[in-house]
Design goal:
It is built from 11 helices and 26 strands. Strands 1, 2, 3, 4, 5, 6 and 19 form a 7-stranded mixed sheet that branches. Strands 8-15-9-10-11 form a 5-stranded parallel sheet, with helices on one face. The chain is of the alpha/beta class and about 425 residues long.
Length: about 425
Amino acid sequence: MEKNYVIVGNSAAAIGCVEGIRQVDQTGSILIVSDEPYHTYSRPLISYLLWGKTDRQRMKYRPDSFYDDNKVDTLFGVKATALHPEEHTMELDNGETVTYGKLLLATGSRPFIPPMEGLDQVEKKFTFMTLNDALALEEAITPDSKVLVVGAGLIGLKCAEGIFEKVGSLTVVDLANRILPSILDEEGSKLVQEYIEKKGVKFYLSDSVAKFENGVAHLNSGAQVEYDVVVIAVGVRPNVELAQEAGINVNRGILTDVHCATSAADVYAAGDCTVSHNIASGQDQILALLPNAYMQGETAGIEMAGGEARYDKAIPMNAMGMLGLHMITAGVYDGEVYKEQNCEGYKKLFVKDGKLVGFILIGDVIKRAGIYTSLIREQTPLDEIDFDLIKHSPQLMAFAKKERKVKLAGAKEE
């Protein structure tokens, strides 16, 4: 089978790539290969599916007609097993070999399961990353279930959100001394933890499971937690094996340039399997975040089709709800701090070298967060705007007239 464009994966980066290609090339053939058997869906919504706040149809990341509209062929439930960049071919587990002109690796990540004594004896154990994970967990729980979630990061807490009303008890254990440590600062973590605890979720922090034994998790602190269902959510690992075995440069994630090209000719990569350059911190790191995955994919698609694009404004960013409490965070938490805390919520802005480098917004203060995000991405010098006004209420009026025009109309700067 020969295709102009082949994409491995079917999530945000893959969809961005299709839409990037079609901005430049309306006729070239596109094939998506995905080991999941589903139409593209939004992974962050699997907790809302369990909670009953959404359904399978509304979880879809694009309409049912997306593949037809964009003239995309699909091979779902099929895994890519080997890549040969010099021959421009890829082997699949269904026995087929695909020949490509340009290839995108959007292979994502998988749950990391650390060794834990007795875990192999736990009958009902799950991870929480895919639609299949969510459906399997939903089948296993009852209103009497005692659920233990190992991991108080985003995945563990989103799992707790999805099932907290459907089970008898819910306990979260984490080695870290606070929840969401990669997303919030200490004060923010404490606020959100107290909110979740009021909903009936119990936490054991700075603690870990020493041993699972006959429905009891023995923690290192000596505490014991009864369970009949266990969810492991301690972290993820990028899926880099396909690239690595093909000789493509990998350092934790697949390495790419600003055009999302890898070290192999005509092979691009995007999403959770790649390393991004975080412009807020100046560090290279894996930014496993949906908006960044989409932007990377779109950049790769435009480049693959012969256009010009750059992925050079990546920052860590999270917009999420947690049991009805909304929060948006971005950038790094470094530099001078401006803080507001009241009944409406919690706001922290971080300023360094005359630029906004990060923010944390929790509660009803999340409106117009896009203006803060734009300031970080564009690295706007704050002396060019009315930052005192923006600190309290982000609004376009704080920008100079010319800037407002650019932001409102997408007008080209002179």
